[in-house]
Amino acid sequence: MTNTTSTPVDNSVDNCSAIARYLAVALLGAIFFPVLVFILECFAKVNVEIKWQLPVWVGLTVPFSCLGFLKGKFCALKMLAFALFFGAVTKALFVASLFYDTSADSMAYHADAILQLLHGVNPVYEWMHGFDDSWVNAYPKATWVFASLVTHLTGNYNLGKSYNLLLIYAVMAYIFSFLKAREMHTGMACLVALAASLGPVEIAQLQTFYVDGALGSLVTLVLFSGLAMLAKPRNSDKVVFIMSSCLLINVKFTGLAYVYVLYAICACVMLYRWHKSRSPEDFSQGRMLAGCMVLVTLVGGIVMGYNPYITNTISYHNPFFSLDW
């Protein structure tokens, strides 16, 4: 008879990784879903009251919906994860409230665009008149929509720029989870996640309505989730890849280039790997990546990006109209 001794397994590290994965999805979703719902309402021309209320309620349900990513975890851990999400959002709003943004562009076309949305302009069907009509109408609008929703909900214009810190938190959480899934030491994973999320541009633009910091955070999310797609992606990796790609397309024109360049690199790697192995698993992975990018194109490029990409094409025969200057 063979005696076997079982050693208790410490699941604390696995639980930390699961919570980090939840925070990344929930924080990103708290920006993505309200913006998407608002744009869909613009298409449907819903009345003004519902137009503001529905995205807010959708945003409030996001952290509860994302608890599904903590499958098999006990209730106390889910409560802790939700408390950390609530704490992160509260801190982001508090930090955003500390300073009034007096930077040049923020007081010009960024402020004009947000105020236009607050005054009920429908960017899908109507022309936005602001500091410079061409800039306000021709630029991607995801951060403006989110800022207008937060301002309408809280009555505090300063809180609209909280998307900067929310995205920094999402990057920090996702990279930590990504690295722990690849068995990196916890301390090193924390340091790498911290360094990757707190870039110089992200810090410099933290208290402004500029979008380069948000652009950097979203590029980082797309890059790491794209790397995850090359291995055995978890459902959370696919969700992060899709949401961050859609937002990246709608933050700045260069975001569109970043998304499809990164996709092309991933597609080439997968194609090469399948060419070498002829494995059904590799073929299935490539098909999954293609499906994600079709969804990103439809949701991020055509629906959320209707203004400016489609409206610029209709009006000026160029989806990147303002870059002609």
Which regions contain 5 or more consecutive residues with pLDDT less than 50?
Answer: 1-10
Shape: globular
Q: Count of helical segments?
A: 14
The average pLDDT score comes to 90
**SSE arrangement, N to C:** HHHHHHHHHHHHHH
Structural class: mainly alpha
- Rg on CA atoms, Å: 21 Å
The end-to-end span amounts to: 82 Å
Q: Give helix % range.
A: over 70%
Q: Which percent range describes the beta-strand content?
A: under 5%
How many β strands by DSSP? 0
Please give the largest β-sheet: none
Number of domains: 1
Structure write-up:
Helices cover 73% and strands 0% of the residues. It has 325 residues and is mainly α. α1 (12-44) packs antiparallel against α2 (48-65) and α4 (104-118) packs across α6 (142-154). The longest helix has 33 residues, at 12-44. 44% of the residues are buried.
In short:
The chain has 325 residues and is mainly α. The protein has helices spanning 12-44, 48-65, 75-97, 104-118, 133-138, 142-154, 163-181, 186-197, 200-204, 212-230, 235-249, 253-277, 280-303, 306-316.
Question: What is the topology?
Answer:
Elements: H1 12-44, H2 48-65, H3 75-97, H4 104-118, H5 133-138, H6 142-154, H7 163-181, H8 186-197, H9 200-204, H10 212-230, H11 235-249, H12 253-277, H13 280-303, H14 306-316
Helix pairs in contact: 1-2, 1-3, 1-6, 1-7, 1-11, 3-7, 4-6, 7-8, 7-10, 10-11, 10-12, 11-13, 12-13
